[in-house]
Design a protein that fits this description.
This is dTDP-4-amino-4,6-dideoxygalactose transaminase. By secondary structure, the protein is of the alpha/beta class. 39% of the residues lie in helices and 14% in strands. A 7-stranded mixed sheet has the order 1-9-8-5-4-2-3, with helices on both faces. α7 links the parallel β4 and β5. α2 packs antiparallel against α9, α4 packs parallel to α5 and α4 packs across α8. The longest helix is centred in the last third of the chain and has 31 residues. The protein is globular. The mean pLDDT is 98. The structure holds pyridoxal-5'-phosphate. Pyridoxal-5'-phosphate (PLP) binds next to α4 and α5.
Length: 364
Amino acid sequence: MRVPFSDFSPMHGEIRNKMIDTFVKVYDANWFIGGQYCDKFEKDFARFCGTSHCIGCGNGLDALHMILLAAGIGKGDEVIVPAQTYIATALAVTYAGANPVYVDIESQYYSLDPMLVEAAITPRTKAIIPVHLYGQVGRFDEIAAIAKQHNLLLLEDAAQAHGASYKGCRAGSLGDAAGFSFYPGKNLGALGDGGAVCTNSDSIADMVRALGNYGSHKKYMHEYKGFNSRLDELQAALLDIKLDCLERWHESRSRIAQRYLAGIKNPIIQLPAVNPDSVHAWHLFAVMAKDRPRLEEHLCKHGIGYQIHYPVAMHLHQAYRDLGYHKGDFPVAERSAMQELSLPIYYGMPDDQIDYVINVLNGF
Ligand SMILES: *Cc1c(COP(=O)(O)O)cnc(C)c1O
């Protein structure tokens, strides 16, 4: 049997007609940027996340970058980010002109380790960006308490966490502002690039909206040196259709995860820990294996797709060698880079594939 790491076809097959009808509607409306479909999606996604504002933009990186600028973070400032995440979290800080300061992740939920955050705070620290890695919110309250005590901005990188929640509140509504990505592979994915900022702050929302539109609130009046980062009408209209299905699609992912958690019984494979305070979005089902190369070989041999998220910890990337970090600085992040492996999980994954993955892992 072959099991792909991911397959969009059950999801896209189910909404094919709606998507094509919507494409025709947008096509016939002959209006492609800044219109009713983007307005409607922004309202719907804000309601979904429980925030007063949502601003569509070009991608997840731009979302985080523009939040930082809107919050006044720039040259000479420091922003705390996890040592194991996708590089976009750190790049957003760099693009804002500030310096990313890495803090190790904890080994339970792979989120920023609250015990280590305090020691990384300096007089230049302005913000902390926890990442809801793999789709789960980690020890957020503890980080929030530190941010509050030191008067730091608390931002969420929610690019992997559409629909996740923490203590009853949706990811995206937990901090001062959140960046989302609608990259096709995310739980809520466009048919191309897209992103959004969610926030309850009127001032951040106002400035982000202008920044992504060439720094302009009013046509040909430019208050800031902004960017071109907008969510177009077509992507917004298509995302709105997918948003309607998201909870049901989440149930499917969640059921697959429960079956993996109950079925995979192998002492050399460490299963993901579920935070009792969180509803996991199960963007990825990340296991840890000490002998990952051998597990990779075993999966390849049995036709099971997998991915590694991520093979190099942030501080060891060549791109960030200028920050002067060394191997050994963030042991949990480094261990995750050596041991993490993401198993197939996608909406509509057939039962026989799930059982097959469980059996192949138990036979490792
Ligand atoms: C995907 C992702 C991003 C970036 O999103 P893009 O839309 O690709 O720019 C940022 N952070 C994390 C954790 C991601 O997974």
